[in-house]
């Protein structure tokens, strides 16, 4: 039985499916949800060719987008489910592991691929990292669009891995 579930959201289709699965699980287990998001890291080259003011605006824009993603995710959670948010300005991998380590969660749920440049990989770099470094079980949710006889259907598959002993 799960009591406290952490779900990573970034606005990607896989993260949306992860949120749906997390809500279903939280409702059935009477668990609390924590929605986590981190402002995307800007590559160092983004700062090389722009002024300081523009770099600050880029960072602010990323933070505002992260706030918007969290708000939209919270709005999808039914009233009967306890929910809170955690927003980080740190790089997503260490920030997410830090939240997992300090938050007392039973389970982490996340999409297999996020909005990053590694989308083409079967398992995204962040989900792969968390899967192998989390001290608690991780549920990885895949969402793929498939075409069948002219209609688009949403297919969801789920992968889970138990936490490895530290």
In short:
This protein is of the alpha/beta class and about 170 residues long. The chain contains five helices and six strands, in the order E-H-E-H-H-E-H-E-H-E-E. Helix 4 (about 90-105) runs parallel beside helix 5 (about 125-135).
Task: Walk me through the structure.
- This protein starts with a strand and ends in a 5-residue tail after the last strand.
- Helix 5 (125-133) links the parallel strand 4 and strand 5 (138-148).
- The chain has five helices and six strands, in the order βαβααβαβαββ.
- Mean pLDDT is 81; it is low at 116-123 and 146-157.
- It is α/β, with parallel strands linked by helices and 166 residues long.
- A six-stranded mixed sheet has the order 3-2-1-4-5-6, sandwiched between helices.
- The chain has helices spanning 13-29, 44-48, 52-76, 92-103, 125-133, and strands spanning 4-8, 32-38, 83-88, 107-111, 138-148, 151-161.
- Helix 4 (92-103) runs parallel beside helix 5.
